[in-house]
Amino acid sequence: MQNHPPRWAERLLEFFCAPDLLEEVQGDLYERFERQAALFGVKIARQQYAWNVLSFIRPFALKRKKSEFSTTFLYSPTMLINYLKIAFRNLVRHKMFSSLNILGLTVGTVCCLYILLYVKDQFGYDNYHKDAENIYRLQTNILHNGGDQPMFNSGTSSPIIAPTMKKDFPEVVEYTRVLNFFTAKNNLLGVEGKTETFIDDKGFLVDSTFFNVFTYRFLEGSPEHSLDTPYTAVLSKTLAKKMFGEEKAINKRIKVGTNINTTTYTVTGVYDDSFGKSHLRPSFLVSLNSGGLGEFARNNTEWGGNNFIYSYVKLKPNVNPESVNAKMPALLQRYGGKRIAELGMKKTVLLQKVTDIHLYSKGITNQTDKVSDISFLYILLTIAAFIQLIACINFVNLTTARSVRRAKEVGVRKAVGAFRSVLIGQFLGESMLIAFISIFLALPIVKLLLPFLNSLTDSTLALTITQNLDILLITVLVALATGLLAGIYPAIYLSSFKPVSVLKGTFKFNPASVVLRKGLVVFQFSIAIVLIIGVLVISKQLDFMQNKDLGFNKNQKIVVSLSNENVQRQFTALKNELLNQHQIKSIGGVRYYPSQSFLQDMLVFKSGGSMDKGLLIKNNVVDEGFFKTLGIKLIAGRNFTPADTNNQVILSEKSVRDLNLTTETAVGIEVFTGTGDNIDAYTVIGVYKDYINNSLKEEIKPLMMHYSAQPEYMVLEVQTDNYEGLMANVEQIWKKLIPSFPLQYSFLDEEIQKQYIEEKTLRQIINSFTFIAILISCLGLFGLAMFTAEQRTKEIGVRKVLGASVISITTLLSREFLKPVLVALAIASPLSYYAMNKWLEGFVYRTEVGWESFAVAGIAIVAISLFTVSYQTLKAALINPVTTLKSE
Fold it and tell me: Among 108, 718, 165, which Cα is nearest to 438's?
């Protein structure tokens, strides 16, 4: 045992203790150490010695920097309060400049705070699950024709893969699979014994292991074994309350109707769906151990196709997912290599971390819910940073422009002994004060504007102290950073004034500061111009998409959901009844209407061909009224008739071209799919003109239409101005034929526009932030114009005495402010051109970045700048020269 004090404690004492105290303190502490060692032992004495050293770290005992002047009083509470008083007096004395600074920083902080709220809300998805860092979803990428022809990149996989991974890979400790109800857009829910029904589209069939992988907080029942038994279900709190009110839901029986059949399930639990954010967001979960779809999925052994289920695996802690990815090709080859080769595809299965799904799924199709894009959040954060930077530039410009008014203050303070570091601290303190005033003003403004701001981003954000402590902490850090960024240069610049030249009246401005101010104005307006051009190009692209000929007529089309087998059986009767309404011109049936993704496809080849060289063609199901209702042109052959079966098909132009056929030769031939003895033949009876089914970001894909008299959707072509009256009649007919299922409908043009929500949101955000950027820039320009006019009053007076007109003086002053604006336009134009062309590359069908966008942006920014400075320039030009020159 060591019988001396801890070395580190002795060194610490020598490091911080004042030399005049060190020897006496060391002696006292050592005597106490020896006494305690004798009484309590060396171990306790060493601990007490260390504690005594740490307790002695107090202001009076600390070393002080030697100086010929004492600076203690400069940082005393009295002097700090004095500096604070001076800062407040400066704010009050110069109300206009203070207001411009505070307004600019407040507006910038409002934008920054809301964007931080939005970005924070988009992060953190699925983090609440226990061991979330070890949970992964299987992502499937398939290429056709030996890797030459892309098929899809999907968040789904074949049902057999996940259980095989658990069996073969020791790294996998658990798996679960999630299956939606296929083409059912809405599930019809009901309580057994009651007639009331509910519509819900967020139900899934899941493995009994679901709650071994994902964490849900149960309010009724327990997650353990809740889905082991066939035909059991777990409900969300929201759905349980909707179906059962305040009654307990557990052990109650519910009916779930899909487009396959209606099944009864026993409720075994209720979970809190407000707990945590998830990419799944289920309303209810039913056991995959049940029959029907569940049985089909469990017994499915296809390794190449049938990639329709969401599969998740949970890895052991500290397992590198790349090591599992590296083993996947061998697994696929061992169990499915032959089948994959028969299909002529190259299949890859990768692990995607579950916490990355919401933000890092760009290009991955078949998502369970709407996902965001990390690049979109980076754009928002960049805009927020630039807005805040513009506000900081305002502060720098206005403060340095007013520096002549504070030159004498700096000179006097330096003459009586103020250090430059003290002056820098004082000026930084003033900028911090303005920054924190802006923060305190911004918080209630954000709270007040949340409904409007949420409408821009299609969000439901709330600003509460308990839930947003991290955001409030970040806001305080933003205030500190803003105060430091905005105040550091003015503080260094003002504190550099020489007291002799200031007090003698020979002080002159540094020309570099003027150049810097103009450069900062150029930077401000460059950002504003980039945003203006961005808004114009995005609006132009959205207008282009709105007016683009899609190959069909989307206007006055009503889509009615038939996502229940019982409803689909009534399609013909319902169609005949509805056609008696004079406002309804025609009706067509379809499985995937425009704007919906095609979930079914097949490899098709001509006579003499094979699957490995086949063409991947998307499949749709329609009736004989579909082409007429949507105005899609048949360019060869004939339309479907009720006598046709699934084996008669109509091809798109794209399919005909890709099969190396012509419009004339395609009609009448047979195309095939399958291998060996399982080859199906389809007779081509017609060719239709290509139409754009999905987003304009995507290329038109080959498509083949099959016939069905029981489609999932009914499209009504109507001609009316009274939609409310028409739909009342439609609902009356619906209830007569289908009383047990509620009418669900939407408008086709609105469904199509939903594909561009992200672009519309971006336009709305940039619209708002462009206005704010221009506002803040103009505040700074207005302040500079006011200051310049004050500084040049005598010059203006002399010019007027010598015969200068008001117009010539106004032009002279305005020209000075237009120069940096024009320079900003020259800098921003090529940057905008490059950035917007890169953005437009995301669209297959796109407009051009035309010269008119730059012309409009240039004219707008020049006009706004002239309007901003016109009041001050006219006011200066109209001053009577006698007033300004009488003291000369």
Answer: 108
